[in-house]
Specification:
This protein is mainly alpha-helical and 109 residues long. It has helices spanning 3-13, 77-84, 86-108, and strands at 45-47, 53-55. The protein has 3 helices and 2 strands. It binds zinc ion. Zinc ion binds next to loops.
């Protein structure tokens, strides 16, 4: 029987007095932009046309170290390799740029 179930059964069967809830602490790690010293929030990074990641709040570029592909599961590796292909990246950037231009144009109309 698992521990939680055992405790529930115990609570149902016995007259257990209420106890004070305990509190735990955990370490929280987060990234800080080296340019503006602000926390880099989720989705506040973009891949610039220079191939570096940038903090979208201030535009500062980061050194980006490519992850070790040997740590990536086999089925995911071909996609990672494709994402690293400079021609593919250029095409993706162009597509994203064209899409952004289109959205801007529509906004102005
Ligand atoms: Zn920044």
């Amino acid at each position: 029987m698992n521990k939680a179930r055992q405790i529930v059964r115990q609570l149902l069967e016995e007259d257990v007095k209420p106890l004070k809830v305990k509190q735990g602490t955990r370490e929280e790690r987060y990234e800080i932009c080296p340019h503006c010293n602000q926390e880099i929030l989720e989705k506040h990074i973009y891949l610039g046309e220079d191939g570096f990641f940038h903090h979208s709040d201030c535009g500062g570029p980061f050194e980006s170290k490519p992850p070790d592909l040997s740590q990536v599961p086999g089925w995911l590796r071909p996609y990672c390799e494709k994402a690293r292909d400079p021609e593919f990246r250029k095409e993706m950037m162009r597509t994203n740029w064209d899409e952004r231009q289109r959205v801007e144009m529509e906004r102005k109309l």
